[in-house]
Specification:
The protein contains four helices and two strands; from the N terminus they run H-H-H-H-E-E. By secondary structure, it is mainly alpha-helical.
């Protein structure tokens, strides 16, 4: 699902995401229900706050020796 969502960043309405879940054989009805009820709203809010406090502005971000590093700034080994 992660790969599908990243591949469709321009189409992430709830109906779109439910369709992707269904195509992958996931429980799309549960997904829609949990989103509508705000099942994970607090957890997501905490993650956003933590990212803001850490100076993270995108994903993926890795911390190496205390410094935020993104895929575009990580040197190839």
């Amino acid at each position: 699902m992660y790969d599908v969502l990243l591949g469709h960043q321009g189409a992430l309405r709830l109906a779109d995401v439910a369709d992707y879940a269904r195509e992958l054989g996931l429980d799309s009805e549960r997904l829609v229900d949990e989103v509508r009820r705000g099942e994970y709203r607090d957890r997501v809010s905490e993650d956003v706050s933590s990212a803001d406090e850490s100076g993270v502005s995108g994903t993926p971000t890795f911390f190496i020796n205390g410094r935020a590093t993104t895929a575009s700034t990580t040197p190839q080994l």
